[in-house]
Amino acid sequence: EDKILDPSEFTTYLTEKIKVAGKTGNLGTNVIVQREGFKVNVLSDIPFSKRYLKYLTKKYLKKQNLRDWLRVVASNSSTYELRYFQINQEDEEQERKVLN
Fold first, then answer.
1. What is the pLDDT of residues 15-48, one digit of tens each?
2. What are 82's strand-pairing partners?
3. How far apart are the C-alpha atoms of 72 and 62, rounded to whole Å?
4. 29-46 residues labelled b (16+ CB within 10 A) or e (exposed)
5. Which pTM does this prediction carry?
6. In 3-state terms, what secondary structure has residue 97?
7. I need a surface site. Which of 9, 28, 29, 40 has the fewest CB within 10 A?
């Protein structure tokens, strides 16, 4: 929602990179990649690895130089979210522990 990541570009990237039957761009009617606002949904009629989707997301973040700020987190058994690293809060907590 803060426009650091463009969902339409990410949707296009997934559409181009997802492999079906060993071929990229071979989605057909088996896999559908759609965008709803700031969410990107991947719907599949065939067995589809959630881990593969995480791999592609990390690859996209690395390509866009966003891997240092965003991480991929499983929010439930069928969903991934992109979250910011909480580096500043951890540093402040460590400083507080040292001072106490």
1. 999 988 888 888 888 889 999 988 888 888 888 8
2. 72
3. 12
4. eebebeeeeeebebeeee
5. 0.77
6. helix
7. 29
